[in-house]
Amino acid sequence: MKFKNNLLLATTLMLVSLSAAALKEDTNQPINIVSDNQSLDMEHNVVTFLDNVVITQGSILIKANKVVITRPPEGSNQKETVEAFGSPVTFHQLLDDGKPVDGKANKVHYDLGKEFLTLTGNAELKQLDSKINGDVITYDVKKQQLNASSAANSRVKTVLIPNQLNDKKKK
Questions:
Q1: Secondary structure (3-state) at 15
Q2: What is the pTM of this model?
Q3: Enclosing H/E stretch for 56
Q4: Which sign does the torsion angle of CA 98, 64, 10, 125 carry?
């Protein structure tokens, strides 16, 4: 039961950490995970959700082909890691101001201990028509710092639409 509670905590933190201004009531909503297949490896403290994985919690919606949540050994003072894989993994969430945040990547890794999110492979974060694309986008939740990079033969691309970002009435 303790593993299940930690799994819920891990999933919750992954889902709500994408934006500091996310809907506050999202964290109090039930977490629903559905998939075609689910497995639990109790010896290695790993739970895996496979095929058509859909995670919802309040306004949060995540879709992936595979989600793996790993719990470190007891007494290690480490926290869970969450990895999601897809073609791509997608997520959607509403912020307190009603604006949506959408993202996608081939792989999403979230380290709960470090509160560090990494989007890898065709990564994109988008709010309305403003967006950032790169091979890798990282987000330090504690510091609220975002970094985007791309391979040598490509570049990071950012599109900003100031009027949309400043207009609190638009959704």
A1: helix
A2: 0.74
A3: strand 46-57
A4: negative
Q: Cα angle at 23 between 147 and 140, to 5 degrees?
A: 20
pLDDT tens for the chain, 171 residues: list them.
Answer: 444 444 444 443 444 444 444 555 666 777 788 999 999 998 889 999 999 999 888 888 889 999 998 888 888 888 888 899 999 999 888 877 788 888 899 999 888 778 788 999 999 988 888 888 999 988 877 777 788 898 878 888 888 887 765 654 444
Total residues found in the chain within this entry? 171
* Greatest pairwise CA separation for the chain in angstroms: 52
Distances (CA, A) of 53 to 1, 33, 63, 96, 155: 22, 7, 6, 26, 31
Is omega for the bond preceding 88 within 30 degrees of 0, making it cis? yes
**Contact between 50 and 36 (Cβ < 8 Å):** yes
What six digits make up the tokens of 76?
Answer: 């290690």
Please, is 74 exposed, middle or buried when counting C-beta atoms within 10 Å of its C-beta (0-12, 13-18, 19+)? exposed
Report d(CA 127, CA 104) in Å as an integer.
12
